[in-house]
Automatic annotation (TrEMBL):
GO terms for molecular function: serine-type endopeptidase activity. It comes from the Bacteria. This is Peptidase S8/S53 domain-containing protein. It comes from Actinoplanes campanulatus. The chain crosses the membrane at residues 354-376. Pfam families: Peptidase_S8 (PF00082). InterPro entries: Peptidase_S8/S53_dom (IPR000209), Peptidase_S8/S53_dom_sf (IPR036852), Peptidase_S8_subtilisin-like (IPR050131), Peptidase_S8_subtilisin-rel (IPR015500). PANTHER family: CEREVISIN-RELATED, PEPTIDASE S8. Keywords: Hydrolase, Membrane, Protease, Serine protease, Signal, Transmembrane, Transmembrane helix. One of its GO terms (biological process) is proteolysis. Residues 1-26 form the signal peptide.
């Protein structure tokens, strides 16, 4: 006989068996995480204005930047973007100190990578300055879509890692507004290794509207870059100062966005990307140039702009940077130099005075002789008249006969 507890357990089991079976798929799943990463926009398909302003199509016959590596210090790069296929290396996350940086939720790094190395394979007109270069992403900003800023320690680690891992060009898209001794040393070490460092000049909005220097743009031997629009006018938030060396397109620039599409962006970060791409072209075409010669070439080849501290030397000019000639200072012939005269002694002064005195006496003697000769010639000369011409005597003709005169008188009287 079953106990009371056994009867209760059987009743419960029977009730469970009679319950309807609910498919697993009908059970509400947990809400999927919201994708707050940057998204592409609807960007016009016509050729982007920077491509025309910088005459990028005229550069293609010279080089496409193959064989060079650009280390991009920003939020990372979305390596899966179709127009960056095969051009993005794993990179390094300098914020955490480990792992790659080939993803990009924020999108800033992918935007800069687009102006450097976009392949132009989707027919939207967006092509990078140096589409055959490699992008080495280095994350120096936390990859969150809420405007995180770079810290000196992460930026220093990123530059040091890029220096030690084969970078030909380093572009800092997210600068600081305060200097740092460790960062300065890292930049100097990169330059000493023959790496050209390019840095965005920052923006006035990020600095609270104050025209303060940005770093590393303000360090020696770094190309600081400001931003201009399609009309050549300076971007409203592009700062001015002696740390701005060049300007480049940085207003309404169509470029790549995380995912598969495009976006239009403003800022000195994408402007720095155009300059970094130009440096990659110069490295690929003229690899024999020193780092200082490449920077001097870009500055000397810049297209003219209105004078002012926001424009630097002018607009970056990729075509001129590849065709301009640079002569190394050691190859220039020095001008002829006259040897210095020895110091004059007392004996030299006496000889000089005697020579001048002798020359003066000879001159006086010569002048005296000339004057005396002229005076003698005047006394022996007299004016005269030409002799009269001879006059021959005229013969005396005889008069008429007297008889003829008498006959003529008789005829008149009769």
């Amino acid at each position: 006989m079953l106990s009371t507890s056994h009867r209760l357990l059987g009743a419960v089991l029977a009730a469970l068996v009679t319950l309807p079976v609910v498919p697993v798929s009908a059970v509400p799943a947990a809400a999927a995480p919201v994708d707050r990463c940057a998204r592409p926009e609807d960007v016009p398909a016509e050729a982007p204005w920077p491509r025309s302003m910088l005459a990028l199509d005229a550069v293609r016959p010279f080089t496409r930047g193959g064989g060079t590596t650009v280390a991009l210090l920003s939020t990372g790069v979305h390596a899966a973007h179709p127009q960056l296929h095969g051009r993005v290396l794993p990179g390094f996350d300098a914020v955490s100190g480990r792992g790659p940086a080939d993803t990009d939720c924020t999108g800033t790094g992918t935007q800069v990578a687009g102006v450097i190395a976009a392949q132009g394979s989707t027919g939207n007109g967006v092509v990078g300055v140096a589409p055959d270069t490699r992008i080495q992403p280095v994350r120096v900003v936390p990859d969150i879509p809420f405007g995180a800023v770079a810290q000196p320690a992460a930026l220093t680690r990123g530059i040091t890692w890029a220096t030690d891992n084969g970078a030909d060009v380093i572009v800092v898209a997210t600068p600081l507004h305060t200097g740092d001794a460790s960062l300065s040393r890292a930049v100097a070490a990169a330059v000493a290794r023959g790496i050209v460092v390019v840095a965005a000049a920052g923006d006035l909005e990020a600095s609270g509207g104050r025209a303060v220097p940005s770093f590393p743009a303000a360090y020696p031997d770094v190309l600081g870059v400001g931003a201009i629009g399609p009309d050549g006018g300076i971007w409203k938030n592009s700062p001015g100062g002696d740390f701005v060396d060049l300007v480049a397109p940085g207003v309404a620039v169509p470029t790549l966005q995380r995912g598969t599409g495009l976006v239009q962006v403003d800022g000195t970060a994408v402007a720095a990307g155009f300059v970094a791409g130009t440096v990659a072209l110069a490295r690929a075409k003229r690899g024999n140039l020193l780092t200082s010669e490449i920077t001097q070439t870009l500055i000397a080849a810049a297209s003219p702009t209105p004078a002012g501290p926001q424009y630097g030397a002018g607009v970056v000019n990729p075509y001129a940077a590849l065709t301009a000639q640079v002569v190394a200072p050691s190859h220039r012939a020095l001008p002829a130099v006259q040897p210095a005269s020895p110091p004059e002694t007392a004996a030299e002064r006496r000889r000089r005075d005697l020579a001048l005195l002798g020359a003066g006496l000879v001159l006086i003697l010569v002048v005296g002789v000339l004057l005396a000769t002229a005076a003698l010639r005047r006394r022996s000369w007299r004016p005269g008249l030409a002799a009269p011409l001879p006059r021959p005597e005229e013969p005396v003709e005889p008069g008429p006969p007297v008889m003829l005169l008498d006959d003529l008188a008789d005829s008149r009287q009769s």
